[in-house]
Amino acid sequence: ASMTIYSIDQDVKEEAIRLRRKSRLKLPDAIIAATAMCHDAVLVTNDNEMQDVPDLKSRQLAVRQ
Q1: Which residues are paired to 58 by β-bridges?
Q2: Domain membership flag for residue 65
Q3: Are 60 and 45 in contact (CB under 8 A)?
Q4: DSSP letters along 24-60, please?
Q5: Number of other CB atoms surrounding residue 32 within 10 Å
Q6: Which residues pair with 44 in a beta bridge?
Q7: How many whole angstroms separate alpha carbon 30 and alpha carbon 12?
Q8: pLDDT class for 63, splitting at 50, 70, 90?
Q9: What does the alpha-carbon distance between residue 61 and residue 18 come to, in Å, rounded to a whole number?
Q10: Which residue has the higher pLDDT, 18 or 48?
Q11: Number of domains in the chain
């Protein structure tokens, strides 16, 4: 398996600002969501708030206890 690391470029910054203005996301979550959106990536998360972000492709991570 491989992983790609993305930098926070101007597009990500602008999308994160837009998300912050339209939602209750905290800044780190807005940056994460914006990065996924700008790179057309699927965000795998266990954060339920991310499921409510419009236009964000996300998958809920099942956590075993």
Answers
A1: 43
A2: no
A3: yes
A4: ---HHHHHHHHHHHHTTPPEEES-GGGGGSTT--EEE
A5: 21
A6: 59
A7: 9
A8: confident
A9: 25
A10: 18
A11: 1
Is residue 26 assigned to a domain? Answer: yes
pLDDT at site 26:
96
5 within a domain of the structure (yes/no) = no
> Between these two residues, 23 and 1, which has the higher pLDDT value?
23
pLDDT in tens, 21-35: 999 899 999 999 999
Q: What type of residue sits at position 20? A: R
Mean pLDDT of 47-63: 90
Range of the domain at 33: 10-60
Establish if 21 belongs to a structural domain: yes
Kindly state the tokens that stand for 57: 């492709």
42 in Cβ contact with 20 (< 8 Å): no
Q: What is the pLDDT of residue 33?
A: 98
Contact 32, 43 (CB under 8 A): yes
